[in-house]
Design goal:
Length: 232
């Protein structure tokens, strides 16, 4: 079975109603990113950071996977699908995808503020101030903030190197180091890019561009890869 590797970004989750940082009217218009998505912001005002991610988590629980998530999960019937996502939501998993690597952490998990290896599932949508890990430190969101290392990059690179097909959906390839993954595909590996706008490919690879939003684009991709219509 051929290995299909998918690199997904915020655009796929936006169609489920999740707010994004980068789009006009997105979260950067409401919050200063330096205050809610950096270690320094956490040091200055952990209550604000906690509130921000609790709100994001509550919103996530009110959203459902969309056609793009569901179709990618359905492709597991035809391919060995591995998803590398820049998203911290769990919509891929809830759609049924069985192999999902989160580059930037997982919103529905908490971690120790002194030991990032200590990660816990969250019961519900809220991390409260005063909730601590076994080392006695406050629990914080299990999210990679600006300025923090992306520990999942090395596993992501190894997965990408093994791809027989690479699909990029919902990301403008402007977020690094994630965008660099395109440069690790082997020569001759077909690359599909699903995006309604003009995207500059940062590497010299042959790309089949599907100029659609995620839902429609993945539906077109499904037909290209399977010869069948997606009916989900």
């Amino acid at each position: 079975m051929k290995k299909l590797v998918v690199l997904s970004g915020a655009g796929i989750s936006a169609e489920s109603g999740l707010s994004t940082f980068r789009d006009m009217g997105g979260l950067w218009d409401e919050y200063d990113v330096m205050e809610v998505a950096t270690p320094e912001g956490w040091e200055r005002n952990p209550e604000l950071v906690q509130k921000f991610y609790n709100e994001r988590r509550k919103q996530l629980l009110e959203c459902s996977p969309n056609k793009a998530h569901n179709a990618l999960a359905e492709l597991e019937k035809y391919y060995d699908v591995e998803i590398i996502t820049q998203n911290v939501d769990d919509l891929h998993e809830r759609a049924g995808s069985s192999k999902v690597l989160h580059l930037h952490g997982e919103l529905r998990k908490a971690q120790s503020s002194v030991d990032p290896q200590l990660v816990y599932d969250i019961d519900g949508w809220e991390i409260k101030m005063g909730e601590k890990c076994e080392k006695g430190s406050q629990l914080r969101p299990n999210v990679v903030w600006f300025g923090e290392p992306v520990h999942a990059m090395m596993p992501a690179i190894e997965i990408t190197k093994k791809a027989d097909i690479l699909v990029v959906v919902g990301t403008s390839l402007n977020v690094y180091p994630a965008a660099s993954l395109v440069g690790y595909v082997s020569d001759g590996v077909p690359v599909y890019l699903i995006d309604p706008g003009d995207v500059t490919i940062p590497y010299n690879v042959d790309v089949d561009i599907i100029r659609e939003k995620a839902g429609k684009g993945v539906e077109i991709l499904f037909k290209k890869l399977t010869g069948e219509n997606y009916t989900g």
